[in-house]
Amino acid sequence: MYELRDTIVAVSSPSCDKRVIIRITGPDTVETCKRIFISPITKNKSGIVCGSVSVDDELSIDTQLYLFFAPHSYTGEDTVEIHIDTNAAVTEVLIDGLLGRGLRMAGPGEFTARAYLNGKIDLAQAEAVNEIIVSSNAFQLDAAEKLLSGRLSETTAKVRSAIVDCLSLIEAGLDFSTEDIEPESGAEVIERLLGVKGQLEELLSGSIRYESLIDLPAVGITGAPNAGKSSLLNKLLGKERSIVSHKRKTTRDVLSAAYSLSHCRCVLFDCAGLMIRPEDVLDELAQLAAVEALRNSAVVVFCIDISKADFSEEVSIGELIEPQILLPVATKCDLVSEKVLSSRLAELNELFGSELLAISSETGAGLEVLRETIDGKILEMEPGFATSKTAGTPFSEGVESSVALTARHKQAVTEAIENVGESIGELKAGNDEVAAMILRGAYQAVSGIESAAGGHIDEQILEQIFSRFCIGK
Q1: Does the structural domain 8-122 have CATH classification 3.40.50.300?
Q2: Measured between alpha carbons, how far is residue 90 from residues 29, 62, 82, 97, 262 in Å?
Q3: pLDDT band at 14; cut points 50, 70, 90
Q4: Do residues 365 and 359 lie in contact, with contact meaning Cβ atoms separated by under 8 Å?
Q5: Cis link prior to 183 (omega < 30° from 0)?
Q6: Are 331 and 305 in contact (CB under 8 A)?
Q7: Average pLDDT value for the chain
Q8: What residue ranges do the domains of the chain occupy?
Q9: Rounded to an integer, what distance in angstroms lies between the CA atom of residue 375 and that of residue 394?
Q10: Beta bridge pairs of residue 470
Q11: Cβ neighbours of 452 (radius 10 Å)
């Protein structure tokens, strides 16, 4: 699959970046860099070396070399990153020159594959690297970072250990059945296996599927400062996610949370209040972040404080954003009488060309209708966002406390659950030898998640995993 004796090279920075990063790893890394870098390189002295790199016979440019020597590098091999401020044409010439010196262009994910094959990371962590790269929202990124930290591997290690304990007890009874010893009873082993099965089922049911976190529609809550945005976010989520204050401009950043509706899921966020004329630099930065987030939203809930008498500010603010769907709502309806509410709603309906929903975060009035409206708007825009397509743990349980599983992980855990269940059945039937054989299958399935000792990963599976990476990672 991968030839570890080769020295590989690839551009590892985005094409849009001004600074280009060329990554090299393998046995000939240092010698290759010595031939093109016009400054001394000391072997085994990691760090940053400034100098010039020879692009061709006539051109050399200033650069920085980041040196990472084995076994303390990402790949476990000698690794160098060449950082240069240049263009695509010069980069191409430099890469061609390195290939001409015997280096090979890295394949998709080959740097991370080498980290895995050299024992620097396990397979679950290798997959997490790619999930971090392709993350499309904060929740997918958070889940990937937890996977990279080894949280799933820690969980499966405990399960593997428990399986080994049960397996040793079963096999002890088989191996020493004629000896004068008292192995643990079958009922006690079954009790232990039921605990293992429960751990695996809990891992599966309490997990977040990466597929359910990818490209979730964003629903933004906006409006003028102190329009009730943060109160609305907290009321919808059922928890204090955003700071609520009577003072203006309390919210400065974009605050997001995952949210489950009746038929779909979304990323619900609150951002800084919008103003026609920001008062200082902080206001300008907060407003830029808010406008950018809102323009990328599927639905924008535009909060208008109906306790106000003048709505000219809201009309002007509405022109700052260009969402796919604008959903204006009249907040703080509990602060006005029925008569005033009716007349002001009529005024707002005319100003915004749509019928506004009157809501109150204090009393909860109109919030269920708001949820249903958001749900319907998202499904109208993209029926594929329906919950049935992205089944998994409800977001109300919290991404923070969950382990993220890819489809491959889920398949492995499901297989292990089935094997443990079958093993329990065989033990009850008195077929201890068959039970032990099936239990070994459960161990192999769990081990395959991170390819730990005793696990086996087929080369085709490895190729499938790393083929999803981009070159240079």
Answers
A1: no
A2: 20, 12, 13, 11, 54
A3: confident
A4: yes
A5: no
A6: yes
A7: 78
A8: 8-122, 129-209+405-450, 218-397
A9: 15
A10: none
A11: 16
